[in-house]
Amino acid sequence: MKLYSGPLSLFARKVEIALGEKGLPFEREMVPFTQAKGYSPKHPVVLAANPKAQVPVLVDGDLTLFDSTVIAEYLEDAYPEPPLFPKEPKARARCRLLELYADEILFAPVLKIGYRTEPPHPDPKVQAIRDEEGRQADALILARYGDLQTELGDKEYFCGAFSVADIGIFMTTLFAIRRKGPGLDGHPALRAWYARVRARPAVLKAAEEVAAADRALTRP
Fold it and tell me: Is residue 142 domain-shared with residue 65, that is, in the same domain?
């Protein structure tokens, strides 16, 4: 099994965590990435496999897949133990919705604060617009944290046992924080959950590699 990944790809790291949690051996190839040019030049395997030309791309024998959600569902079907989805259909559907919430709902305002990891814009007016959009995004992220804390309640993990929902929500929250967005201090149950998830070996490895990539890519 081979995974095409990227050092700062939230979605590729989701797949790495899923593979690690399932104890599946895999070869990883990091595609070219720099802060100045992004994912360029595009890797030919990624270009051939994914019409969006994005990682992750997973190759398992004669099967090539893209999209972190599709890959996670394939891994669950092909390698069901240990499970990363609930067994019961309604619980499974709720878990999928929570992963979608991480990827589509929480991630939307996180995208708006990506500029904070870049140098200030040379045009002060453009920078002022970015800053105002960033403040609005921060408020929305905090509201999403509140929704997630309510959903979590007193559970250890979002779907009872550790699942793809925890992977997705953790990685999006990690990226919110690394982009200098709101932390979790005002949401103690969610903060405790975050620490609990981060302590898992596969998650910790991904989080530490993202931090190391940040340091390496921003070094003068």
Answer: no
Of 189, 101, 182, residue with least CA distance to 142: 182
**Residues 67 and 167 both lie in one domain:** no
Q: Which of 166, 188, 167, 169 minimizes the C-alpha distance to 177?
A: 169
Residues of the domain holding 157: 89-218
Contact between 158 and 151 (Cβ < 8 Å): yes
- The per-residue DSSP string of 120-169 comes to PPSSHHHHHHHHHHHHHHHHHHHHHHHHHHHHHTT-SBTBBB--HHHHHH
- Written as one letter, the residue type at 209 is E
| Residues in Cβ contact with 101 at an 8 Å cutoff, skipping those fewer than 6 apart | 148, 168, 169
**Does the reported pTM lie above 0.70?**
yes
Residues 72, 116 share a domain: no
- State how many domains the chain has: 2
* Strand pairing report for 2-5 and 57-60: antiparallel
Residues of the chain where predicted confidence (pLDDT) is lower than 70: 218-220
